[in-house]
Amino acid sequence: MTTPEWTLREPSSALGDAYHRAGWWNDDSLGQLVERGMRGAPHTPVRIWSATRPWQGTLGELLDGSYRFAVGLRHLGVRSGDVVAMQLPNWIEGAITWFAASMLGVVVVPVVHYYGARELAFILGESRAQIFVTTNRFGSVDYLANLEAVRRDLDALEHVIVVGDDRPASATGFDDLMAHDRLEAAVTVDPASPALIAYTSGTTAHPKGVIQSQRAIGAEVRAHLPVLIPPRRRPVLLGAPISHATGMLLGLLLPASRGEPIQLIDSWDPPTVLDAMLTDDLSAGSGATVFLTSLLDHPAFTDDHRARMESVVLGGSSVPTTIAATAEAQGIGVVRSYGLTEMPTVTGAAPDDDARLRVSTDGHGLPGVEIRILAPAGEPGEIVTRGPDLFSGYTDATLTAEYLDRDGWFSTGDVGVLDDGWLTITDRTKDVIIRNGVNISPAEVENALLQLPAIAEVAVVGRPDPRTGERAVAVVRAPTDVPAPDLAEVRRHLDAIGLGKPKWPEEVRIVDDFPRTAAGKIKKFELRADLRAELRDE
């Protein structure tokens, strides 16, 4: 197999030495990190909640399966540095693939489980993946049909491995690769070598391939996440997919490295989650805010559920202050965290930090993180950052040069304010609505609108307007059994709380749900595209 070559950008030797001295970096591979935790707690339970492929076992059984699948991959010729892509739901086979590839020092390329042929072709083609692990279908997605539609253009792809019995003759069965001896131990690889290529999850129309090194992911798991999530807490049932940073880190890598239970669900269904919380004594609700609000808003949510949610970690998208405050008022500690695919956790807080700051800000810089605001002190400006978990570059070298400078500072494209070390995200540089020459912050308007009980979620986006340049449209999801507000009600509310009239939406659109990324973020670019399409049809 031919390993792709990427242009990677390492931090200065002085910065790298500082990361080593502080213990944020070491020589462990990602595989060695999780192997150590699972070996130390072989009887710890693992459970996959699924209507189609449920599974219960232990970390020891998961480790054994990972060792066997690793040897199966070796029989196909896979070696350290090769690229293995996977498109699987939150199934045990997905966890096995993740860990087996990591133990071989392989570059893992997770493909979000609901992506179609277009996204699949782009990711497999640009990453030059040589192995693709998938299944026949899940939900409405026919994975094998999507692959067949693009396979002829994937000259690097050598083997397709399929979970389940329904597969083409040209594919290899997943179970066939499990029928091998066990790997003795995770291999040793260069800690600066790539461990992961994660593709930005779709808040823009053109995803970017983000290359993370072994030591960067290690720093995330060893130094950053333990600040947000102390050990020995109640197990958390996670719905974020393992193909995305939240599910990968919180659902697999962190618990495995600490020898803690793994609890995953393949399709987020609030009634199933609420039942699981009681039957297995679990917490839930961490990830994007939709995972929390879908439980709090559900009629089956009780004090017994609330008591199991001592704290939740919210991130993956802007976290409205009102939602965090609502949870805190119910005794659920909220930890807000800000991060990106390129740097999974920039800021966060500990569950016992000052509740006012935890709720009203996106946290403080985590160990080793440096943050600069490109604006006068106290004013909002673009956030640039660097730290031990910063990515090594993009698969596209021109993007690396654009976003990552020679001193290791990454331009996030987000706008925020620092106050005594605590960061508050105020906007995206590309998310601002400009109406009559006035910049409107969607995040500010969204936070104001979320104070209305008739609004469960809202996205404020710009619609082209020949007179004003843009007009603000509030796309609203109402809570269950609550009438959605009209424009007049929205404006009365904004007037009452004192939001300037130039910032008021000019339209309100009601939706049952939003188009979302794997992390639960609202795909604003799709909402904008729909609005532009309406204009073309008029």
Question: What would you report as the Rg, rounded to the nearest angstrom?
Answer: 23 Å
Q: Tally the helices.
A: 18
Tell me roughly what share of residues is in helical segments.
25-40%
Q: What characterizes the major β-sheet?
A: 5 strands, mixed
| Spans of at least 5 consecutive residues with low confidence | none
Q: Quick one: how many beta strands? A: 29
- End-to-end gap: 53 Å
CATH class descriptor name of the domain at 23-227: Alpha Beta
Instruction: Give the class from helix and strand content and strand pairing.
Output: alpha/beta
Structural write-up:
- The chain is an alpha/beta fold and 538 residues long.
- Among the domains are: 23-227, ANL, N-terminal domain (Rossmann fold); 433-537, 2-Layer Sandwich (GMP Synthetase, Chain A, domain 3).
- The protein is 34% helix and 24% strand.
- The strands form 9 sheets. The protein has a 5-stranded mixed sheet with strand order 2-1-13-12-14. Strands 4-3-5-8-9 form a 5-stranded parallel sheet, sandwiched between helices.
- Helix 2 (30-40) packs across helix 4 (92-103), helix 2 (30-40) packs across helix 9 and helix 8 packs across helix 9 (245-258).
- The protein is globular and about 70 Å long.
- It starts with 12 loop residues before the first helix and ends with a helix.
